[in-house]
């Protein structure tokens, strides 16, 4: 036994006790005749006092981040720190041991550190000692626990599905694992347990969940990880509303337990409503600033941009009529960025009743501008932005501008949370390059209307739903196809030959022959959910040992070369002409 | 909504209610004017009655394992079945829908099935419908939940460690994953999160656990899986007793919560005691029949087998003096099997005081045989077996014979559970082929006495402990090395060059420079723990989608070939001359 207490629990009620503590030397201050040390462990910080005979020795032989154990008496502090639970006491040390010395850490272990991302990742075991990162790890643990409790209490069984499965090229790229005992053959790591959870429904498991590692070999963008964690769920004998109610309950429960407040009932938008009102299928509802379509109101004034446009809409930024030329130019540049791709931005400064400054005032009279402002629900002092063009592209661009204005007006507070459902997604997406449809969700999502799917696949809607919080998609799911004929039809529309479909998904198609129940489910991005609840943008801060944007673990230096013997045993070789 | 209730909850208190149920047609009986159907879901079985206008239709259009939903009234059964909770009621169906038809399943879905292992694995989604397998899946869920609750309540954080790590050839073979974005380089799948959990201790996480998938590319023996699940745990600032107390608490808690009884405090044996008393480091304590050494008592009687032996010991099988020649011959054959490798077996039938039949009665007088029997604590009616030879080999052979006798005497009841700890393991094992030491546990286990390690490594004992239940090793762990110099010394003794050690474990050796706390932990085989608690020998019955002994998943047909495009993207090729 190295300690009688941890560094976070001693308070005034322990005064007079003889205690033993162990931990890391966080701060050390030499006051001449005494040394103060803040001893740190996972639980907190306790102030140690080394005086008299221990002064000289502790002055020289204890350094920063040394691991020490001490024995001493709890006394009341004269100079109390009410910010921490242990701030009213200190320990007068009577003996100590150095359990392990430490080199000086390569960056400071405070919440605000001088260590860059790369250095912190290389020494992640030091980075985690920082309170801010340690709290994230704790949050993740607590969140997982709440999720498991809620789902278990609601009759879900956590069932582990395999990691070594089979490659199915539909979708993102698989990571593969050569099989030594089956030469020339490969396992693949799962992108999700989708087919297995459907098989568990066919197996009669009724309610399944799993907090599960998934893998995607994608070209990594910022804040994507090759391995990530999902809360994966599936239910039998359910409609879309049953699933939505169950998981709205989960998310509300999490907010109550972890954040201490009830988000209330979630709003629900169809995909079309979300696009029309917010220019995105994942609206950030922490602020209003809705898109208003004005296509029919503004045509016929000889303004070619409007007259040629399929779609014209505007947003109104409250109290921004005083924006300078420079500020507006910045926003024009913003919408012209390649990621957004708009050709221009029209503004109306609503300075007063019938008093406007606008980039289109040579085409529109004051009355006409007034009508536009009224249509968009603007009031005096607002700044109106209008965009025109192809419908979906223009909605998306205006949606991006809306978010940018939300940022500028500080309407996107990380401590406010507005969850919502988006439903009625398109079933398919046409890919112009490949000249084929792809499943918007995945090939197992059921269509709302089978006759629309047959006659006009592009118009088919899916029984699919996304959970969005603060503009971020946290989860998505669908009611699945459980009829083998519809599943076959779906594979056909997606361009699978019968042979290909059988090769990749034969086991599932076969299982549909043996009494598949109606079923549906959802999967949540657990890393992202942690980040949202933690109030952060970066999922890396919520993963104990993340990889960088190149998929490398800088601490263990992975991936790495393997030995020729390993390659030989696996029966594979590395192409020397690899470019 | 497909149902108002599930098939396991309706009882006499629901009589008169109008209900809707959905599930699978388990059994169907045609009684002439009415059809009885046992409708099955995860929760139970409810009897449905189709009569009057529904009789003819349901007779022809509903088959076995069809998925149906019904609406009807709960009535009291005349012929009650008190074996199931719903056995006192039935549903008079007034309407039904066929939600999905089914082909007849390829094997019966009863607890005792006519399906062979291979067929069951190919149709695992049907196999899981069998109550006996479904209960295993439920047990596994409940067990995981209890483990998480106990550990979380004791301050452990569940922290996810990466799956894509780096190959470290020490130990078993790694599965590797080619990296597309780092051509020629590979990730490896973890054999255990050993180094990461140690890094989490250095990171100050204090108490860590994880129920985690691990991977070993071994030549599979019966009941080994290439991917398996561990309960992996680590604690800081602990001694061996702290770890043992914490996890004895866990195992006792599991038995109380899952099996409804307290195992009581666990016995503790040193490795040497276990070998001396039971001839194994994982004794089955459900029965006594201890080994008794008699080396010094029986030498010098001109019996060469004894006189030449390093070690002689015996066991006494209660009330087996009446064993026939044939029975004894079977046991002689048993110990001569290559896996056991004994050259022979000596017996003494203790038929009465001073009355023996024995294979050595020409060398020993009745008094001498009496002395041997007394030494081994035999009583009249017992059968004594004696073996002689090299010490460890003879102990192990006698230990195997002891287990065989336990089986024959039905002393190994699957509903009795006797957990124990084995401690003080040897640190190292000498490998005669490679002429080097291997770590018995792993290279991070601390020695009990560093001077023994230096002067006579073969004699060094480890701060290591195993948890054994009913003769099966369920978990093992150790207090780790936290001193960088001892770790370096350990790598040296294991024959690592400094370069090799740094290449494979440099990140850990480096981390030891920055204040590693004393720490230790344990890992439990979760699949095995489930099987033990379920009273089964086979872990496959406790894994939702297991692989067969060749590492193949017969349902999804994995591993499988991948496309040339995938190989090209990964920059690898398959050796055509692979034998």
Would you write up a description of this structure?
With 579 residues, the first copy, chain A, is an alpha+beta fold. Among the domains of chain A are: 12-100, OB fold (Dihydrolipoamide Acetyltransferase, E2P); 287-412, 2-Layer Sandwich (Gyrase A, domain 2). Chain A is 30% helix and 25% strand. Chain A contains 17 helices and 23 strands. Chain A has helices at residues 53-61, 117-122, 124-127, 131-153, 194-202, 240-259, 271-278, 295-298, 304-307, 325-336, 366-375, 391-408, 450-455, 484-493, 498-511, 526-534, 564-570; strands at 18-30, 34-41, 44-51, 67-76, 89-100, 157-158, 176-178, 186-188, 207-215, 227-236, 267-270, 292-293, 311-317, 346-352, 355-358, 383-389, 419-423, 428-431, 436-439, 464-469, 472-479, 519-525, 572-574. Chain A has an eight-stranded mixed β-sheet with strand order 6-9-10-22-21-20-17-11, sandwiched between helices. A five-stranded mixed β-barrel of chain A has the order 1-2-3-5-4. In chain A, helix 4 (131-153) packs across helix 6 (240-259). The first copy, chain A, is globular. The mean pLDDT of chain A is 95.
Fold topology:
The structure is a homodimer of 579-residue chains.
Chain A: E1 18-30, E2 34-41, E3 44-51, H1 53-61, E4 67-76, E5 89-100, H2 117-122, H3 124-127, H4 131-153, E6 157-158, E7 176-178, E8 186-188, H5 194-202, E9 207-215, E10 227-236, H6 240-259, E11 267-270, H7 271-278, E12 292-293, H8 295-298, H9 304-307, E13 311-317, H10 325-336, E14 346-352, E15 355-358, H11 366-375, E16 383-389, H12 391-408, E17 419-423, E18 428-431, E19 436-439, H13 450-455, E20 464-469, E21 472-479, H14 484-493, H15 498-511, E22 519-525, H16 526-534, H17 564-570, E23 572-574
Parallel strand pairs in A: 3-5, 6-9, 11-17
Antiparallel strand pairs in A: 1-2, 1-4, 2-3, 4-5, 7-8, 9-10, 10-22, 12-13, 13-16, 14-15, 14-16, 17-20, 18-19, 20-21, 21-22
Helix pairs in contact in A: 4-6, 4-16, 14-15
């Amino acid at each position: 036994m190295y300690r009688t207490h941890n560094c976070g629990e001693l308070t005034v009620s322990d005064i007079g006790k003889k205690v033993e503590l162990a931990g890391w030397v966080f701060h050390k201050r030499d006051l001449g005749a005494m040394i103060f040390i803040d001893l740190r462990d996972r639980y907190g910080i306790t102030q140690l006092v080394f005086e008299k005979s221990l002064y000289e020795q502790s002055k020289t032989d204890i350094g920063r981040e040394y691991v020490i154990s001490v024995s001493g008496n709890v006394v009341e502090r004269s100079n109390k720190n009410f910010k921490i639970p242990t701030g009213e006491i200190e320990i007068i040390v009577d003996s100590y041991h150095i359990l392990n010395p430490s080199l000086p850490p390569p960056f400071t272990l405070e919440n605000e550190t001088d260590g860059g991302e790369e250095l912190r990742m290389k020494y992640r075991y030091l980075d985690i000692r920082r309170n801010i990162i340690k709290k994230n790890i704790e949050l993740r643990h607590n969140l997982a626990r709440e999720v498991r409790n809620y789902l278990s209490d609601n009759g879900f069984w956590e069932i582990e599905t395999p990691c070594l499965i089979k490659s199915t090229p539909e979708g993102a790229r698989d990571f593969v694992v050569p099989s030594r005992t089956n030469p020339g053959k490969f396992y693949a790591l799962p992108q999700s347990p989708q087919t297995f959870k459907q098989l568990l429904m066919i197996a009669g498991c009724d309610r399944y969940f799993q907090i599960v590692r998934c893998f995607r070999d994608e070209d990594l963008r910022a804040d994507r990880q090759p391995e990530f964690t999902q809360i994966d769920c599936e239910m039998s004998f359910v409609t879309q509303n049953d699933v939505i109610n169950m998981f709205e309950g989960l998310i509300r429960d999490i907010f109550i337990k972890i954040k201490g407040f009830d988000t209330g009932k979630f709003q629900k938008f169809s995909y079309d409503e979300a696009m029309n009102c917010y220019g995105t299928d994942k609206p950030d509802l922490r602020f209003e600033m809705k898109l208003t379509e004005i296509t029919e109101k503004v045509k016929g004034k000889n303004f070619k941009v409007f007259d040629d446009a399929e779609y014209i809409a505007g947003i109104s930024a409250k109290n921004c009529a005083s924006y300078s030329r420079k500020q507006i130019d910045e926003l024009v540049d913003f919408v012209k960025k390649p990621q957004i791709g708009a050709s221009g931005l029209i503004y109306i400064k609503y300075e007063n009743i019938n008093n406007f400054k606008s980039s289109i005032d040579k085409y529109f009279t004051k009355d006409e501008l007034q009508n536009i402002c009224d249509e968009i629900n603007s009031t005096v002092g607002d700044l109106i932005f209008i965009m025109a063009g192809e419908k979906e592209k223009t909605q998306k661009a205006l949606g991006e501008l809306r978010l940018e204005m939300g940022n500028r007006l500080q309407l996107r507070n990380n401590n406010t949370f507005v969850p919502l459902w988006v439903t009625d997604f398109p079933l398919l997406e046409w890919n112009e390059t490949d000249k084929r449809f792809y499943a918007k969700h995945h090939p197992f999502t059921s269509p709302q209307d089978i006759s629309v799917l047959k006659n006009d696949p592009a118009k088919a809607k899916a029984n699919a739903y996304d959970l969005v919080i603060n503009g971020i998609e946290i989860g998505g799911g669908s009611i699945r196809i459980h009829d083998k004929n519809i599943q076959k039809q779906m594979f056909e529309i997606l361009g699978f030959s019968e042979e290909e479909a059988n090769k990749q998904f034969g086991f599932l198609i076969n299982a549909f022959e043996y009494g598949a129940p109606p079923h549906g489910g959802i999967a949540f991005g657990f890393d992202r959910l942690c980040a949202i609840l933690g109030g952060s943008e970066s999922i890396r801060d919520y993963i104990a040992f993340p990889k960088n944007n190149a998929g490398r673990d800088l601490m263990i230096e992975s991936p790495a070369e393997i030995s020729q013997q390993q390659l030989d045993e696996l029966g594979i070789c590395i192409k020397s002409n690899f470019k």
